[in-house]
Amino acid sequence: MTKDKIDLAALPAAARQVVEAATAGEQPTLEAFLDFYRDAVKRKAVGLSEADVCRRLVPSMTTLAGLVKHLRWVEVNWFQRVLAQIPDDQLGPLPFREDDPDATMRLEPGETLSALLDEYDRQCAISRSITAEHDPDTIVPHPELGEVSLRWIYVHMIEETARHAGHADILREQIDGAVGV
């Protein structure tokens, strides 16, 4: 099937970006796929009650709202902390802790899905502005890996966001039976 046989208007915006990137350069293609999975996670959480998005349906702390919160912190870590090399003291306290692997998903009293989605959108916009200033070949130091390229960061972020979109898909199906991207 080719682009001219797909009804682009019927697709969500992020899915249209992926189709339109079919012959694009490397960076627009990577960005389109990352945006597609960012959008997939958000779409799985929208339309549910606060109680539903906070419901624990698995033994871990994983909830739909918790996934959005976690991915917000992943955006900060990889694009601001690692790629842009913004010092931790300028980013504020990052909740990544070896002794508490669920810290980035743990919901605080009063946190709402709407606020989490707004913050996730804000962080994704910051990530896009940072990546726009770099080439995929850009190499930056990483505290554990030595060095990483923007290309590697993109692939890692696509993998992590897609994996969590799959988690969100299963959680949404458990809540109300909705399936699909």
Automatic annotation (TrEMBL):
It holds the Pfam family MST. InterPro entries: DinB/YfiT-like (IPR034660), MST-like (IPR007061). This is Mini-circle protein. It comes from Longimycelium tulufanense.
